[in-house]
Write a structure and sequence with these properties.
two-stranded antiparallel sheet, 41% helix, four-stranded parallel beta sheet, 229 residues, Rossmann fold
Length: 229
C-alpha cells in the first residue's frame, strides 16, 4: 500500500468514526470534522511526533485544535492511534464521558480546552514560544484552524506575534471548508493554495516543515468528501 492510499484509508476511517460518534447523541459537528480528516490523516501518520503511551514526554509535539468544535475528529484520532477504544468513542457527549463537546485536558493528550473560535491559535503561539525560549526543546506545535475563525482579530494578532518571534516550530493548518454555522464564510474558497487530496495535504505539510518561520498551509476542503452521494 502506498503512502497516499494509506492516508486516504485513514482519512476515511476518521470521517466514518466522526459521524458515528456524533450520531449516537445526535449532537456535535461531524461535517466540520469530516473536512479536516485527510489533513489529520497525513499529519498523524507522517509528521506528528507524539508518544500516546507517554503523553507527559516533554519531547512530544503539541496538537491544538483551534477549531475545537471538530472534537469528533480529535476523538477519532485518539481511537486510530489506540489511545481510546471504540466503546469509549461512542460515549461522545454523554453524561460522565471524558469525550466532551469540545476537547478538554481531562484527556491526557489534550493540552488546553478549545472551542471558542479565535483562541486556539493564540494559545499555540504561547506553547511555541515556551518551546523555543523556556523549554528549549525541538517539539513542534501544530494548530488546526477553521476558516470561519479567520475573521477573528485574535488570529491575526497571533500570526503577527508568531512572525515577530520567528516561531519556526509553529505550523497553523487552515481547514477551508467554506461553510460556517449560518452559511458561507467571508472568503469562501477564494484561495491561491487549494487542493482536495491527501497527496496535496502532504505537499502542503512538507512545505510547512521546511519554511524558516511560522507557516500556515491552507487547504480547500469539502465537508461532504467521503460521504455517500
Amino acid at each position: 500500500m502506498s503512502d497516499t492510499e494509506r492516508w486516504s484509508e485513514l482519512g476515511q476511517q476518521l470521517r466514518v468514526d466522526s459521524v458515528r460518534a456524533a450520531a449516537g447523541t445526535k449532537s456535535g459537528h461531524p461535517t466540520s470534522s469530516m473536512s479536516a480528516a485527510d489533513l489529520m490523516a497525513v499529519l498523524i501518520d507522517k509528521y506528528l511526533r507524539y508518544d500516546f503511551d507517554d503523553p507527559e514526554n516533554p519531547a512530544n509535539d503539541h496538537l491544538i485544535f483551534s477549531k475545537g468544535h471538530a472534537s469528533p475528529l480529535v476523538y477519532s484520532i485518539f481511537k486510530a492511534v489506540g489511545a481510546i477504544d471504540d466503546e469509549e468513542l461512542l460515549t461522545f457527549r454523554t453524561f460522565g464521558s471524558r469525550l466532551e463537546g469540545h476537547p478538554t485536558p481531562v484527556l491526557p493528550w489534550v493540552d488546553v480546552a478549545t472551542g471558542s473560535l479565535g483562541q486556539g491559535l493564540p494559545i499555540a503561539v504561547g506553547v511555541a514560544l515556551a518551546g523555543k525560549g523556556l523549554d528549549r526543546l525541538p517539539y513542534r506545535v501544530w494548530a488546526l484552524c477553521g476558516d470561519s475563525e479567520m475573521a477573528e482579530g485574535s488570529m491575526w494578532e497571533a500570526f503577527e506575534h508568531a512572525s515577530y518571534g520567528k516561531l519556526d516550530n509553529l505550523i497553523a493548518i487552515i481547514d477551508v471548508n467554506r461553510l460556517g454555522q449560518r452559511g458561507e464564510t467571508m472568503h469562501g474558497w477564494d484561495l491561491d493554495c487549494a487542493g482536495r487530496r491527501p497527496s496535496a495535504a502532504m505537499r502542503s505539510r512538507s512545505t510547512a516543515t521546511t519554511w524558516t518561520r511560522s507557516t500556515r498551509p491552507m487547504r480547500r476542503r469539502s465537508r461532504w468528501r467521503g460521504s455517500p452521494p
